[in-house]
Amino acid sequence: MALIRVEHVDKSFASRHGTIAIMQDINLSVKDSDFVALVGPSGCGKSTLLRLIQGLDRPTGGRIYFRDQPIDRVCRQMAMVFQNFALYPWLTVSQNVAFGLEALGWSAERIAPQVERYISVIGLDGFQEAYPRELSGGMRQRVGLARALAVEPAVLLMDEPFSALDPLTAESLRDEVLQLWRDPQLPPEAVLLVSHNIEEAIELADRVIVLSRRPGHVLAEVPVDLPRPRDRKSSAFYDLTDRVYSLITQGGPASEGAPRAG
Amino acid sequence: MPTAYPKASPTEMMGLLVLLNSHKGAEDVALLADDLDLEIDEILPSLEFAEILDLVKVTDGRVVFSDLGKHLVQGTIRERKTILRDQLKRTTLFRTLLRALESAPEHCLSDEELGQIVSLTTAPAEEAVQNIVNWGRYADLFRYDTDHRRLVLVHRPATARSGANRPPPSGGSASSAGGATSKTGRSDPAGSDPAARASGLASVTA
User: Fold this and answer.
1) What is the pTM of this model?
2) By the 8 A CB rule, do B13 and B56 touch?
3) Has residue B194 been placed in a domain?
4) Which CATH number belongs to the domain containing residue B115 in this structure?
5) What single-letter DSSP state applies at residue A253?
6) pLDDT at residue A115 in the model
7) Residue B98, domain extent
8) Count of the separate structural domains present in chain B
9) CA atoms of A204 and A37, how far apart (whole Å)
10) Residues 28-47 of B with CB under 8 A from A
11) What was the ipTM of the complex prediction?
12) Cβ-defined contact of A168 to B16 (cutoff 8 Å)
């Protein structure tokens, strides 16, 4: 059974200049133990799509299902990790991790051990009482990750989670996310990652879904059948990168057959 | 020779090891940097400290995992931290800091005391001190009490000093106990009778 099904989803916004279509007729699914990456040019609606999937926003048309249930409010089986970490600066690491559980109405007795467990899983022991300002970007994103995982989501949604980090730190965190995803004892079952970095998508995902320019639609689903850890310099990796890159640069409005002047 | 201290963050150094692993554990330093579109001098701090911790060996511009480094990168997040902790304890800098913490009243060092000790060994800048503190926190050797601006020793079962020299274990299940025990003394700077601690540890590590 698919964890997530996105069926014929449209999203548009009304503006002074009329209606702007962000995405059109998006279809995709995320299955158990999937690691799916969404790539596409900026403005194609990747992040908006994540918000729709979690139920933070409503599609203009089409339906989204989680385990065959239509999503009509924020889905508690999913948790989001953000590019800018989205931590509360006045809360300690422990308090930030506890935040999502408090919002779900957990009792204090249940929250404390859960927070401890996920702080330890993510490797944040020693920083429980630290404030976000004391932490490097990598450690801050680990707090974001611990907060998301503490609610034990089936699906982890990640919106450009590594793009604010320096390259070595990003490499380290990508590896840790893979480790968590592969561990059957730990959430999440599946990961849906939004990235503008094609190499990152191919390094991590089992499937890369390529979206077109605005209005975004699915140009292709590219399976990545390479053993991990993936060698970015291998020819197979290069071929996949090349294919996704060509899809992104050649896809878009042109495929709709409406030639544009200029 | 001045005492070595970390110029990269723990996460950056871990990133370097993960990167090296995706290159099958041996690579030219220049090609490794190139893989992430970095200049060599941007990965050198991580490389240097990984070598100090005996996780990699660099010869003629080529970097290769040590057995311990190979073992570390294949471990879980917690197992990695346990190995880092053991290796940090073998460096002069962290040995000095731990000895100072163990002998200090309440096992705490103020910011000034910390700065003095660090400057005796390395004379680094303020951000280097912060990085050193973060390494110790990351490896769960000590914690930092922001409200009182002081470093506090993390009490843990005192695994035999000679154990720091351990060979890579074959199984790996034992090392996860380190993560589980790490919380025991976290917020308990007072009430730290070493004998009481020692008696408690057999059951924790078993």
Assistant:
1) 0.82
2) no
3) yes
4) 1.10.10
5) G
6) 98
7) 77-153
8) 2
9) 8
10) 31, 35-38, 42-43, 46
11) 0.84
12) yes
